[in-house]
């Protein structure tokens, strides 16, 4: 996915919010968008989601399934939580069962019979997150996703982001609170003066893993999710990942639990001597 020479303003005589912005996003990228207030972070997210149209330039190769959770979910709607989510699932042709699954996972099952206007800010925010995840998004956009969340859901959300990324989805986040700052492989970009520029990555530890889940297929997955599967007709490959040192052990443990082989080092040359096996059939 590529942002190509993107310019945007909210009116013909309004100042440019973005001017000639460039950004490339690859499968599996998790990108944090930072910058001072009022510089256009939320505008960039809405453009990426397709909710705004560029005045100049283009957004190329946007994934067909986009999940967007706004900073403020519009709760002034005449629905209960359950009827709203079931309606959104029907519109997006998602299995109705995902409503209950995401409600449990995001700690909002007890809210299903409540009316949207009666929800607290944090509870309404959970509904916004759930509706963005009803279909497996190829592009997940989260604007201040941790705002108002309880401790359990704050801890769960990075796992959700990791699962979307592991399936090859792109995740773009604006997060003033920095809850994803230690996320393995996080990219950061800054919006300032109408431009988007990459920021340097932090010190990291390299993790090497064989990509390919024995016997796995590329079919649908539950919200609990698993790592990205590789078709049995494709040879297993070595994926080299650099992650923050504090997160390396936990990531390695999760990958091993999914059946992947993981070799770790602290930044030295990667081991090139291990032969690659054929993927399981």
From TrEMBL:
Domain of life: Bacteria
Alphabetic keyword roster: ATP-binding, Nucleotide-binding, Transport
Presence of the UniProt keyword Plastid in the record: no
Keyword presence, Nucleotide-binding: yes
Transmembrane segments: none
GO terms, molecular function: ATP binding; ATP hydrolysis activity
Region called Disordered, residue ranges: 203-227, 260-281
Gene3D superfamilies tied to this protein: P-loop containing nucleotide triphosphate hydrolases
PANTHER family hit by this protein: ABC TRANSPORTER ATP-BINDING PROTEIN ALBC-RELATED
Protein's name according to its UniProt entry: ATP-binding cassette domain-containing protein
Organism of provenance: Microbispora oryzae
